[in-house]
């Protein structure tokens, strides 16, 4: 006779976990304490500039048609219709070809009976859409915009990432010397002032403009340290969108309130682009005052181009001469850098620091005269040096 089973031990014998050895964890901080105000601003700025326009699913895509058995081309002895099935007769024997009708009775279809007409695959599949072919200039423009968007996304993502990971109070990039910022609005009742405060964070806008200028024109070792303060002035009644003035250490950027109103449809993008352009004038070199104005303005718009604030009217390949200035010269400089190596524009700016301007600087940097480069650019204004 087998012994009776032993009852299980009390539950307390299995109490391997000792709560005294594991004190309660500290309470979690509130969500408001997870980020500093500066980190919160940078995080929301990153989300605000993120491109949420993902590719949509293609519409009207033809749906594959399943295999359709054509009873008209099949012989009765070799195939059986896919629409027929085997059903048992009264004696319980399965008979091929019996099919129930709507009343539950079975009816046998003769092999010689004509099957109902069936739609062909070509009748079920809609015709494919025909996309218009792009011309060579359109392909080049699309390539340029795609490459520019990719580079801007990489740069902006890096700046936002370093800003979020930087210790509190050190700013987006501790390597750059950030000056003191001041703001003066000469007419707070102006509609442009209202638009400005609704769409722009002044401190962040000025700081990001400094970082963009230093990132594209300098290295950590060569960035100027003479700019101690930047005063942003918003004024009515100006005849130009903006201009820069001031001394060696104290700079002033004046922006037209009327221009802000005129750009209300894209106020943030336009204002940040203008601010970046003017901030270049606070930091760039000018060959001791001898550099052509077209090259000065072209360098400023080249930084704006790479900062991603491209106005709708900018087009590569424009301009009557290489030093026409602004976007015409900016795209020309970008083409030179793409064709002859990254860093050429940065080196060009450094060549303008301690010496009088000499047009042969382009010969030294590229091995070609600037007029020859311009002719080649006008003939082949392809993206990233592609001809």
Describe the overall structure:
- This protein is α/β, with parallel strands linked by helices and 387 residues long.
- The chain has twelve helices and eight strands.
- The chain has helices at residues 37-49, 121-124, 136-165, 191-199, 202-217, 257-262, 267-283, 293-307, 326-340, 344-351, 361-366, 370-379, and strands at 87-88, 94-95, 98-100, 106-108, 180-185, 229-235, 242-246, 250-256.
- The strands form three sheets. The chain has a four-stranded mixed sheet. The protein has a two-stranded antiparallel ribbon with strand order 1-2.
- A hairpin with a 3-residue loop joins strand 7 (242-246) and strand 8 (250-256).
- The longest helix is centred in the middle third of the chain and has 30 residues, at 136-165.
- The chain is globular.
